[in-house]
Design brief:
This protein has one domain. Strands 1-2-4-3 form a four-stranded mixed β-sheet. Helix content is 75%, strand content 4%. It starts with a helix and ends in a 9-residue tail after the last helix. The longest helix is centred in the first third of the chain and has 35 residues. With 427 residues, it is mainly α. A hairpin with a 6-residue loop joins strand 3 and strand 4.
Length: 427
């Protein structure tokens, strides 16, 4: 049993330490590169004060890494003190029904993680974000959001956890395959439910019906060969000064959402270019590609999880009753580091899709300049770090770094300018 403990600790502690070192390297690399390329930042991105960007990056990284270490320490304390084993035994004894007890165990774990993360969320919102003028939440609104968010997370944990436990009960030999179907169905449902049911609990969504913005949206839709009646502006400014946009759903449930901060910070051409990039993810089949990749990833993880859940040593390590729900939670602790360490494989597909989406936006807009300007504005307004360490980028980035994207977009602009007039791209 000592060997299992050694492997487990090496895996979870070693992975946390590895990513902490990566984060430190990333901060050091940014400190050096931002100062070396201060002129480029000022001229291209519009960052006149690189120290402000670096301070935001440094503080945010430190808070994030501290949270990772503390959460891991709490999890290990709960496991090795016997609290988890005692909680599992008490839950199944009191509830009586194994399915309901397992669901309650999942919900309790989710709520417990929310509670442990709360002090860090408070510091992030009222410390980091407030210090850099991004926070727009009052303490009352923050508390309300955390209560509602925890309730939503608990409901999702109950639904997904209950579905997986039923798969384990009904298909004892190949439950990993049935559970994969449950998870994929859940992911599909969230594509519709999250923007339509969950996010309206936190934000207002106003349909874009008339005016210049609607005309601009319809214009880029027509250029892209895309139809979608549901275009909304979300009042993101009620919580944060950050800006973004996203596309979600499928079929008749397609929905385009623009942050009000994005609309306020950019001109219509830049907004169109961002929208064209988002539309590419549907036009090029990226949504289904990513869903298929997620299904494969989930299937592999659950296949390994079945082996772990059916192994007696997994429970004996921490004196936990041999219940599938407890086994799944313990297996997740083993599998999360493996998932994180294989993230470069997962990121390759995302990176390829993001590059294709940028190329699509260039074709739709007839120029790379609008999207390059939009990326520069987003980086400047959000104080994003444009220069990640190459190794950090490999493990964490699903978008190419901003300098790479701007370079591609400006090069495409130069190529278009060099074409004879009758060969220019038309849309």
């Amino acid at each position: 049993m000592l060997v299992y403990h050694a492997i487990f600790l090496a895996l979870v502690v070693g992975t946390t330490a590895f990513f902490a070192v990566l984060a430190a390297l990333n901060v050091q690399y940014a400190e050096r590169t931002v100062r070396e390329r201060a002129d480029w930042l000022a001229e291209t991105v519009g960052v006149e004060n690189p120290d402000r960007l670096l301070d935001y990056h440094r503080l945010g990284t430190a808070a994030s890494q501290l949270q990772s270490v503390v959460v891991l320490a709490v999890v290990l304390l709960v496991l090795y003190s016997g609290l988890f084993g005692g909680a599992v035994e008490w839950t199944f004894d009191v509830v009586g029904n194994d399915l309901l007890a397992g669901v309650l165990l999942f919900v309790g774990s989710v709520v417990a993680l929310q509670v442990v993360s709360l002090p860090f969320d408070v510091f992030d919102t009222f410390g980091v974000e407030e210090a850099f003028d991004f926070n727009e939440q009052s303490p009352r609104l923050f508390a309300r959001d955390r209560v509602v968010g925890t309730a939503v997370a608990a409901v999702f944990a109950a639904i997904l956890g209950g579905g997986v436990l039923l798969a384990v009960e009904w298909f004892p030999v190949f439950w990993w395959l049935a559970a994969t179907g449950v998870v994929v169905a859940f992911l599909l449902a969230t594509q519709v439910l999250v923007p339509r049911v969950v996010m309206p609990l936190f934000y207002d969504f106003d349909p874009v019906e008339d005016g210049e913005l609607r005309d601009a949206v319809e214009d880029v839709f027509e250029r892209a060969g895309f139809t979608c009646d549901q275009v909304y502006v979300m009042n993101a400014s009620s919580r944060s000064g950050h800006s973004n946009a996203f596309f979600t759903g499928f079929g008749r449930t397609k929905r385009v959402v623009l942050f009000d901060t994005l609309v306020e910070q950019m001109d219509e051409t830049a907004v169109q270019s961002v929208l064209a990039h988002e539309l590419a993810h549907w036009k090029k089949g990226h949504i289904w590609q990513n869903l298929a990749a997620s299904a494969v990833q989930v299937a592999v993880l659950l296949f390994v999880a079945q082996f772990l859940v059916e192994s007696a040593w997994l429970y004996e390590m921490f004196a936990v009753p041999q219940q599938p729900a407890a086994g799944l939670l313990l297996a997740a602790l083993w599998l999360q580091p493996l998932d994180e360490l294989t993230s470069p494989v997962q990121n390759r597909l995302w990176l390829a899709n993001e590059r294709e989406a940028d190329a699509f936006a260039v074709d739709v807009m007839g120029s790379g300049a609008p999207l390059a300007d939009a990326l520069a504005d987003l980086t400047s307004e959000n104080l994003g770090n444009p220069f990640p360490h190459p190794l950090y980028e490999t493990f964490h980035y699903q978008h190419p770094p901003v300098p790479e994207r701007i370079r591609y977009l400006t090069e495409s602009e130069t190529e278009n300018e060099q074409l004879p007039e009758d060969e220019n791209v038309t849309v």
